[in-house]
Write a structure and sequence with these properties.
41% of the residues lie in helices and 17% in strands. With 254 residues, it is an alpha/beta fold. Strands 1-2-3-4-5-6-7-8 form an eight-stranded parallel beta barrel, surrounded by seven helices. Strand 6 (172-176), helix 7 (187-196) and strand 7 form a beta-alpha-beta unit. It binds SN-glycerol-1-phosphate. SN-glycerol-1-phosphate is lined by residues 23, 176, 178-181, 204-207, 225-229.
Amino acid sequence: MNQRLYQLLLEAKKRKEKKFAVLIDPDKMRLGNLERILALSKEARVDYFFVGGSLVVHDMMDYCLDTIRKLSTIPTILFPGSPQQINAKADAILLLSLISGRNPDLLIGQHVLSATTLKKSGLEIISTGYVLVDGGTPTTASYISGTFPIPYNKDEIAACTALAGEQLGLQLIYLDAGSGASRGVSESMITMTHRTIDVPLIVGGGIRTPEHAAANVRAGADIIVVGTALEREPGLMLEMADAVHSTKNSFRTF
Ligand code: 1GP
């Protein structure tokens, strides 16, 4: 099985390099914004594009993937809200299992239905334990999934959930406060989760500033994902990426 991007990520983690991913939600891209984001991403040394959304209602996925392929060489990883978003034009897919929830459909059901399509797609498959955390506002992700996010201050639940995911063989853990969250995942939750697992840790949801991104890296995130803030102000990308790339973990004691 092709695991090229994942192997590169593991090597980067060993070298303590931090990665910056820009989330492109095909439905939320305003006209001209995608081209601007792609133009800035090269200078910013963006590491990945995550493409997908909880609710893709317009058929913009192909357009986004074609445009990225035409204008950029940055790896494109699907972050699908549903099996309909599987698309062979990307390089890889985060095969998400919503391990913070108890909805069997999102733990295994949809995976069974899409397994053959996924195999035929030739996409690199990276199995990912997806952990939704309360970000202060109900998000599309929690509504659509019909699951309760982990309470904001229950660090140990997040850490044990992530550990169980790792023990089940999931290759990444994604702590997500949900797109547009009014507050991101807490630093103490990131640190406890980071200390509990060995696989790379993705953190996203509600990250609006370079300082916030840097603080999450210091707390233990390996990959930072930002969507909403860059849809509103693409120009923030340079500082955001720089903050992630130049910050190291500090493992403060809380
Ligand atoms: C959501 O983590 C991503 O799944 C990004 O969230 O849009 O709030 O940056 P934002």
